[in-house]
Amino acid sequence: MVDTSKNGYTVVFLAITTIVAALVLSIASEQLKVKQAVNKKFDQKKIVMKAMGFKIDDGAKPADIDAIYKKSVERIFVTPMGKIVSVKDADKYNFEKTLKPVGLHKAPVDMANLSDAAKSVPMPVFIRKDEKGLPLNYTFPVTGKGLWSTLYGYISLNAKDLNTIEGAIFYDTGETPGLGKEIEADWFCKNFVGKKILNAEGKFVSVSVNKGVVNPSDKMFEHKVDGVSGATLTCNGVTDLLNKDFHLYEAYLNSLRGGKK
Fold it and tell me: Does the predicted model carry a pTM greater than 0.85?
């Protein structure tokens, strides 16, 4: 029989217990990472689809979301020069992480003097299609700096005029609850629906967040949305990121418009 009263037994027992516990925790951690990755991919699809105008129930199952997505949504990648490119392991591609190294992460961006690396950055475009396969809208990711955090969102443009915003979503911000965090609220996001990124002459003017409520008599009414009270810096960040990222997609949008500005 093993003499359990000896120190050596205690040391060996503790070592084995520690190793087994570490192994169990390691396996559990890896399984959790896989589950988290699947959930994140599912949530991202829901966010994109909501920006496109799909009605997504909070209790929708991943299989149902995937079925709608595969049937109605196409994802492509384009460069700031408007060229359509392919991306290896596209599902693992992190668009936001590619921006900072080449100077495309904050406004303003000098589009006339982009580096070669910046000119070739793949940027995702999500296209909602009807039953005949014709585009209904084009959705673009937008990202920039707020007051405390990085801001993330998606903006959808009507496919017919490539000018009218059909949907907007902001998510996962680390802004102040009750203030800057309000950019994630439905009331703020719905502000953007119907706004225009081109003026009457077809010139790009983007959309800006106003300080307070926009007066309907304002000549830029179609290009402004109501701001969040007490969150000026966060709202300025939204204005900057929209201007920046619409510029990044400008060459591609112009190609869809037939080269017309």
Answer: no
**DSSP symbols for 186-242:** HHHHHTTTT-BSB-TTS-B---EE-SSPPPTT-TTGGGEE---TT-HHHHHHHHHHH
Asked whether residue 40 is assigned to any structural domain, the reply reads: no
In a domain, 35, yes or no: no
Report the sign of the C-alpha dihedral through residues 68, 150, 123, 228, in that order: positive
Q: Please report whether residue 28 resides in a domain.
A: no
For 96-109, how does the pLDDT look when each residue is reduced to its tens digit (9 = 90+)? 889 999 999 888 88
**How distant is the alpha carbon of residue 232 from its chain centre?**
21
What is the reported pLDDT for 261? 47
Domain that holds residue 85: 48-256
CB 223 within 8 A of CB 196: yes
Q: What sign has the CA pseudo-torsion 195, 198, 200, 205?
A: positive
Q: How many separate domains does the chain show?
A: 1
In a domain, 23, yes or no: no
